[in-house]
Design goal:
The chain is an all-alpha fold. Helices cover 79% and strands 0% of the residues. The protein is built from 10 helices and no strands.
Length: 229
């Protein structure tokens, strides 16, 4: 900046600068302060909202652990409240998964479908919760007689953490259709994925399914017949 020789020159320069720039500068300051206040306000609201959603979800889990019909109704009410008041949160999506499970237990497959599609409409594509919802939706569709649509959903599986679950569900649906060879192939794929990423599926149950579809070797049958003679 220029160096002024006297205080009068500095004061006069300040007056001229204010006349030329003062209003815009003041507006910029006001906008900056307003934006900062709005950001702090939003952050406070966001934290309170998340805490509220978390509290409601924890309450839902506690009630859902009960076995009475009254507890079941209360869990449903809390889950619906999460969906209504915190629809954009992961808590609401997990609540909808819970509602879908309850619907399946009650034999209401249409309601289960609706809840799972609600989750898929809000969860990030490819996220863990979206993949869980897809696998469950496929099973519900298969139980509703829509096996082709269920298989189409399961074909979307990649090499992610739920690849074994996708392959297992595909095998179960193919087995229901009497497509044993394809089911065996899907189960084998599930075992391969589960070996690479343990914990996805129950390996003991998977092995039983594979064994039930594995043909007995002819050599074994010939040997057994010879021993009986």
């Amino acid at each position: 900046m220029e160096q002024y020789r006297t205080e009068e020159e500095q004061v006069e320069a300040l007056k001229r600068w204010w006349q030329e720039n003062g209003r815009s500068t003041l507006a910029a300051i006001i906008i900056a302060l307003s934006a900062g206040f709005a950001w702090q306000t939003w952050r406070g609201w966001d934290e309170r909202t998340r805490e509220s959603a978390s509290d409601t979800y924890q309450a839902m889990l506690q009630v859902a652990a009960g076995t009475s019909e009254e507890q079941r109704r209360e869990a449903v009410e809390l889950a619906e409240a999460l969906k209504e008041n915190h629809g954009g949160s992961a808590y609401a999506q997990f609540a909808a998964l819970h509602l879908a499970r309850l619907a399946v237990e009650a034999g209401d497959l249409a309601e289960a479908q609706a809840q799972l599609r609600w989750v898929l409409g809000r969860a990030d594509k490819g996220s863990d919760i979206a993949q869980v919802a897809q696998v469950r939706l496929a099973r519900v569709l298969a139980s509703s007689g829509e096996a082709d649509q269920a298989l189409a959903i399961l074909e979307q599986a990649g090499e992610g953490p739920y690849s074994a679950s996708y392959a297992l569900a595909r095998g179960d649906i193919l087995l229901q259709q009497g497509r044993d060879a394809e089911a065996r192939q899907a189960y084998t794929e599930a075992r391969m994925h589960a070996s690479a990423q343990p914990g996805q599926v129950n390996l003991a149950t998977l092995e039983q399914k594979l064994e039930s579809l594995t043909p007995v070797a002819p050599e074994y049958l010939d040997g057994a017949a010879g021993e009986e003679q």
